[in-house]
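Quick illustration for those who missed Monday's session on complexes.
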Amino acid sequence: MRDNMSNRVAAIAAVGLLLASAVSTKETPDFTQPPIANLSNYQNGSLFDQWRPKAHFIHPSNQLGDPTAFWADPDDGGKFHFTALYSYIRGSGNASLGTSSFSGATTCDLLHYEDLSGWENPVQMGPGNAVDPVADFDGGVVAKGYKGLPTLIWTAVKGLPISWTIPYNDGYESQALAYSEDKGKSWIKLDGGANVPVIPLPPYTGNVVTGFRDPWMFQNAQFDKLLNNDTDSSELSHYISMSSGLHSSGPRIWLYRQSNESSNFTQWDFLGPLLQSEINTTFVEPGSGFAGTDYSDGNNYETSQVTSLGYHGDTGLEGTGMGFVSFGAESNKTMMLYRLGHWVRTDLSDIQPSNSTASNNRTTVTAAYGVEMNTTMEGVLDWGLSYACTGTRDVVKNRRISLCWIKEAFADQDSAKYTTEYISSLTLPRELYVKRLNNVVDNPSLTRQRGSWSILTNSSSLDSTIAANETYTSPVAGRLSITMLGIRPACELEAYRSQAEKSYCSGKSVTLSAASLDGNSSSSQTEVRRGVRSGTETALVDEAFVPLAESPCTRHYELETTMTFSNSSLRNDTAGDFAAGISILRSNSSSENRSMEDISIVYRPANESVIVQRRTALGGESVLQTPEIGKLRLWETIAGDDGSAQVQNLTMRVFVDGSALEVYINDVFALTTRAYYWYTDSNTVGYVYQRPANATQVDDEASSVTFSNTSWWQGLVNAYPNRPTDKNQLIKQAVGYAEPDPNPNAAGVVYNGTGPAPPFPVLP
Ligand SMILES: *[C@@H]1O[C@H](CO)[C@@H](O)[C@H](O)[C@H]1NC(C)=O
Ligand SMILES: *[C@@H]1O[C@H](CO)[C@@H](O)[C@H](O)[C@H]1NC(C)=O
Ligand SMILES: *[C@@H]1O[C@H](CO)[C@@H](O)[C@H](O)[C@H]1NC(C)=O
Ligand SMILES: *[C@@H]1O[C@H](CO)[C@@H](O)[C@H](O)[C@H]1NC(C)=O
Ligand SMILES: *[C@@H]1O[C@H](CO)[C@@H](O)[C@H](O)[C@H]1NC(C)=O
Ligand SMILES: *[C@@H]1O[C@H](CO)[C@@H](O)[C@H](O)[C@H]1NC(C)=O
Ligand SMILES: *[C@@H]1O[C@H](CO)[C@@H](O)[C@H](O)[C@H]1NC(C)=O
Ligand SMILES: *[C@@H]1O[C@H](CO)[C@@H](O)[C@H](O)[C@H]1NC(C)=O
Ligand SMILES: *[C@@H]1O[C@H](CO)[C@@H](O)[C@H](O)[C@H]1NC(C)=O
Ligand SMILES: *[C@@H]1O[C@H](CO)[C@@H](O)[C@H](O)[C@H]1NC(C)=O
Ligand SMILES: *[C@@H]1O[C@H](CO)[C@@H](O)[C@H](O)[C@H]1NC(C)=O
Ligand SMILES: *[C@@H]1O[C@H](CO)[C@@H](O)[C@H](O)[C@H]1NC(C)=O
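Prediction with 2-acetamido-2-deoxy-beta-D-glucopyranose bound:
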């Protein structure tokens, strides 16, 4: 057995040597000892398995970026095609972190994935032609497009950098077309990659936009109807939404419509803005926090998707239900947001961006009418660090399936790129739909403010939803029906339960309250810690912890629990300002040379927030530890005939899959983040109750929470049964990171996107 301490000493000595001789000895990680803060001092590939998700969409190795170009194949049983941007070696010195190509997989069951063109060379399209010399960014796909084939319209990049924070260069981003003759295994660029983009320039030129990318293709009968476009053709028109913005005016989503017959996808007419916002604003009540901050819509939209949603899922083709658009909104805290509302016709005869000085130079053909969203609510699609969410219609079950990119959260991304040898994954597949909640107690200070819900004024039609602060008298006094965006894990993920390798179910409920911290706890197992970081360095909490009778023994599981809070604790500052929830990935003990680590997911009723606290052994110099915070309202509803009101329970589903941590609550809230646990024994799960350190608190109903129906299912499902299990095979494929840095072979490694990729470089 190896002596870990002497190993550490040897490595420290080696760092000294490095300066003199440029030869380094990197360490093997020891998960029983505290980690080295600088992750790049571990051996290449040595952290490949530590945090790697098992059940998530992930590239074989290397960097994953935005999910994009999703589609479902109606000729192949509705098989889903998911793609995510990918980095790969192309041209000299390009072992960078940039994701500039497309790599995808298919799935029929949303559990198992098959790499589209094999795991050895999983690239379907890369940059390098006249139309896209620098990079390929996100695009949209239709199953039957150009020549009746699967057709991709994507952002072909000719110049970088592009950012909303700097002046724009017209033409750096143009929208180009490719089609596939092999069901998406490879994409054929129009005219062999000649410089013939189908949307060459932004609608307003003169370098006035903040960005012009991520074309999203869709059909919607409601749009055709509004534009009197439903002539004889049984075929619906195709539309494109373009994510963009105008400097000094605000973010925009532009609408385009296909010009000619539906067999030709090369000409698109400009139809004005589909969504426009003032710079640094939101739709919701200022100060409410339901869209994040008051300036969440920011400066530039990205990665938009457009459809319509109903109670059962995607109604995009039919155009019934509520209009839906989701988008990344770039600001000083970029977030993934959504709007629900109604599509309305707009007159384009006099469209001007609000700052016409800056942007009156319109270059594109313009139609007489356009379609815009009349928003009734706005919210956050994922409160954590996931981004660039996109989706597709399930053509068999008419669901809306959506996945997001889960960024990594290393303090310095470069420190981990050789030690993990992969970066990022997507989220689990989620279903989006309109969720309805009846008999909500109509307390105007809670219900009648603009937020992430709308009021349903006529139960027979979603057309009748209105923004929550519109004047409205409910036919049943004191009650309302509201609609929200439903977000839940795809139903196929039930397999994580039915196929679990091990599971646990607690039959009894557990109540925690002020007494649990004050030594009067009924449970002898209660562990009390005082002065614990609540996630930030400054705010300390005292904490009571009650472990479950049994905890999982791997970091791949689903957990569910239901928490009951009393109505008197909600929005009540005097109720001790406590937070309660689940603590996971918790190490068993602290000792002389190591402190405890854990991740806690808690709800703080006083300010209606969900907080994910990350107290990992890897500190802030290695990984981001700022708490993730989201806002969730528990509604009071009238349950029985006696008119008695009950506050909604909080039912939490937590998916732990390596470092990928996803939290879903009440089918309306999602928060994804990274959990970089370290120690081998950091597996304990239990209930946690916290209040500000040394606070005094009355032990009453308002300070208590009850946990019930707590279960976990260990194992999840291996998403890639056909990939090799040997990590070296996955890493040392032709398109992995070159190592070491700088890669001496880079000059010889040029992959042009067709044919067999060059062999992995010979390393010194
Ligand atoms: C981490 O170590 C690498 C060498 O292994 C060094 O280049 C880098 O500067 C270090 N990073 C920090 C933040 O100290
Ligand atoms: C209008 O756009 C064209 C094409 O990009 C450009 O050459 C011209 O300078 C622009 N004019 C103004 C006033 O911005
Ligand atoms: C598409 O339309 C353009 C413009 O009308 C035309 O030049 C082109 O040949 C058409 N392509 C196909 C495949 O029909
Ligand atoms: C609804 O609230 C918004 C701000 O949140 C305000 O601008 C608007 O005037 C309000 N509408 C009504 C009908 O009160
Ligand atoms: C909008 O917010 C950004 C930061 O997110 C800031 O840099 C910019 O100046 C703001 N613009 C206006 C007009 O307030
Ligand atoms: C930028 O972020 C800070 C918080 O970090 C916030 O207080 C400020 O209002 C933001 N400014 C704008 C214009 O978005
Ligand atoms: C309009 O845009 C121009 C050019 O970017 C800028 O100088 C001017 O301040 C803007 N005006 C307003 C009212 O935002
Ligand atoms: C948008 O919806 C509101 C009701 O929420 C309505 O008063 C308004 O007329 C609608 N706007 C348009 C352009 O239809
Ligand atoms: C707020 O909390 C205090 C202390 O727990 C409790 O006595 C009071 O009844 C609560 N207030 C409301 C309005 O429920
Ligand atoms: C909350 O959960 C408890 C325990 O499972 C259950 O008895 C109660 O009916 C639930 N309350 C509501 C409002 O659903
Ligand atoms: C809480 O009280 C203890 C004992 O008086 C003290 O040592 C500690 O610093 C206090 N913590 C805080 C955060 O005030
Ligand atoms: C791409 O590379 C392959 C193999 O190296 C070569 O056969 C092919 O001609 C190249 N294609 C182009 C367009 O350069």
